Amino acid sequence: MPKKQSTASKKARAAAREGEKYTAALRREVESPAAPTTYSYVPVDDAGDEHVWARVVEDCPRCPCHAARVCTDGLWDQSSRPVHEDGTPYSDLCPCEETAEVPEPRRLTITFKGVTRTLEAEYHRHGVMHGRLRVLGYPFRGEPDDGSAPGRCGMVLSRSKVMRTARDDHGDTWWVRTRASVGGRPAIITGWWSDECLEPVA
User: Fold this and answer.
1) If DSSP codes are grouped into helix, strand and coil, which group holds residue 105?
2) What average pLDDT does the segment 118-138 reach?
3) What are the structural domain ranges in the chain?
4) 0.90 surpassed by pTM
5) Are strands 166-168 and 104-112 parallel, antiparallel or unpaired?
6) Alpha-carbon distance 128 to 101, whole Å?
């Protein structure tokens, strides 16, 4: 790649970070037979008939059908399905996607209302819960918005690089969310359900 990147090159690399597999074209530039072959990024619409497609992200090492970032970040629903060399659609199920349908067990250490606990949780790489961590066991106290009786509830956390009050055993940090549901009713988490049945973590 040339040291001075063109606008198309920068756009291509930006698109690659968003999970695109093929984003731009490379044009061969040969000034003389003795000169080495160089390449430059050009917009796809201006590439012409003689160009070389640039693969700007690596393939996933665990499946034959997606880029590595797609499987790492669980972006299967946003990626286009590839085709075989003969042009037929790739219809086999992605092994990475199949594996991701099963939530990944994790242990979450969380500080809430001044009390620290270690809880069982599940990290979801697929479906409507994609990218979120769900606490198991309903250890929190939730007070419904309609004023009905409080009840036990869980918590769904979103990933955060800023919040440090919740960290799992994979080293990921999470944003503590106080909105929850008690018996299907919107509620706010006000504390732990029972301080007596949960021992503080040293």
Assistant:
1) strand
2) 89
3) 7-99, 104-192
4) no
5) antiparallel
6) 11
